[in-house]
Each structure stands twice: as C-alpha cells, then as structure tokens.
Amino acid sequence: MVLIFTVIFTGCKKVDVPEEEPIAEETDEISEEVEDDSGKKIDEDKIAGMEITGNINIFSGLEISDEVWNSRPIALMIENSPDSRPQSGLIYADMVFEVVDEGGVTRYVAVYSSYDAGITGPVRSARSYYAEIARSFDSIYAFWGTYPEGYDIIRKLDMDVLDGNSDVIAYAKSGWRDYSRSNITEHTAFMSTIKLKEEAADYGYSLKGVQSPLRFKIDAVNSDKGDISDITINFSYDSY
Fold first, then answer.
1. Which of 2, 102, 163, 168 is the most exposed place for a label (fewest CB within 10 A)?
2. Where is this region: Disordered (predicted)?
3. d(Cα 227, Cα 67) in Å, to the nearest integer?
4. Are 113 and 135 within 8 A, CB to CB?
C-alpha cells in the first residue's frame, strides 16, 4: 500500500519547464560606418604633386620630366665578352645597342637619359662605328681609350667625349679600376654617369638640349667627294 501511494505521488509531481528566452526582434536599421578620408586626402595630394608634362621619351616612349627632357644623354662603351659579365648599370640605360666587334665578340653602346648609374661597366675602348652611334643622339660619349687613328676619327666627328684612359682628347679622371671583379685588366674599368656629367661641365660641354632623334651624317658636297675608283681595306687579323 505504501509502495503504491509513493508511485502515485511521484507521478503526480509538478515538472519545472524552463522559461524561453526572449527572441530579439530583427530590425532593418543599418549601422552607419564613419569613413576616414585621411587616406583619400593623401592620395589626392600625391596625384596633385605628379606633374603631367606631355614630354615623351623618344628612347623609351615613357613620359619624362622637363629636367630629363632638356638634358643631353650620356653614351657609354660597355664590354660584353663572357669573362666581363655580369655588367653593372645596364638596367638604367634607356637604350642599349649591341654591335659585333672583332673576333665575333660584341660590345654595347648604352645610352643613359632618364636615370643615372652610379656604377657602370666594364667600360671598353671606342671604335669609329660606336662613336657614330653615340653622336647620332647628340650624346656625350664616354669610353676607355681607343687606337691612334680612332682619336683622329672621333675628333673629325666634332662630338663631346670623355676618355677614362688618357688626356689625348678629354681625360675623365673619375673613372676607376676594380680588380676584385677580374684579374684581366680589360674587364676592370668602371665609370659613373653622375661623375661624368660633373666632368663634362668642367670641360665646358653643354648638359642641356632636347632629346635628339637620330642625327645623320651630312653628305659632303659633290666637289669635295673626289673621284675614287679603288678602295683598299686592310685587316690586321683574320678574325676581323
């Protein structure tokens, strides 16, 4: 009897039901973000400071400043034999001409206009055909020596030059040799376009002048051309 009443009493005990938490009602309100326009102002100031010149670099096709536009380029003779690599400063040149030299080895005529190169080289000697390339851009031609007849030809081209090897024409004393690069003397000469411009000014060369397109050699008048029927070309080595 006691057992039955216990079961009945237990079965009739009230069960606690947990209260449901109130559900937050959704709203259509959108929180407004506060915009920080400080970065925008910096960008606007940066854009305003960029000068739109309309000057197009005839060497690269890119826009350049008035300062570069009105500056004469520097043309440098750069070695390209396998033993001379890697070269320095070629990345800063606007144009690089590769020309076959004696023995099938090539050299570069690197024309610097938009950027300066603190170190460029190895610098090598001049040849008449390299000088004519440099002259065609009204550049200041820098090299490291040449053969005796080469000096005479360069003089006749009536161009501004700087020679790191001697004072036969105009000695560029700022050039140097770096024997840590090679134990072969021909691969150790280096120059700086920054220093070359300073020396060019000391020699009275003009550093100003609108970038010049190709300047072609002026033909002599017919009366000065002469009457030539035979031409003899002497080659000093078979490899030439």
1. 2
2. 20-39
3. 48
4. no
Q: Find tokens 């009204």 and name the residue.
A: 138
The CB density around residue 132, as the number of other CB atoms within 10 Å, is 18
Question: Does any domain span residue 159?
Answer: yes
What 209-214 contacts at long range (C-beta under 8 Å, 24+ apart), as own/partner pairs, is 209/70, 209/71, 209/72, 209/138, 210/69, 210/70, 211/57, 211/58, 211/59, 211/69, 211/73, 211/113, 211/137, 212/137, 212/138, 213/58, 213/137, 214/136, 214/137
The CATH number covering residue 131 comes to 3.50.90.10
Residues 112-128 have pLDDT tens digits of 998 999 999 999 999 99
Range of the domain at 109: 66-217
pTM value > 0.90: no
Domain count, the chain: 1
Peptide bond into 122 cis (omega under 30): yes
Q: pLDDT tens across 117-172, in order?
A: 999 999 999 999 999 999 988 899 999 999 988 899 999 888 999 999 988 889 99
Q: Report if residue 90 sits inside a domain.
A: yes
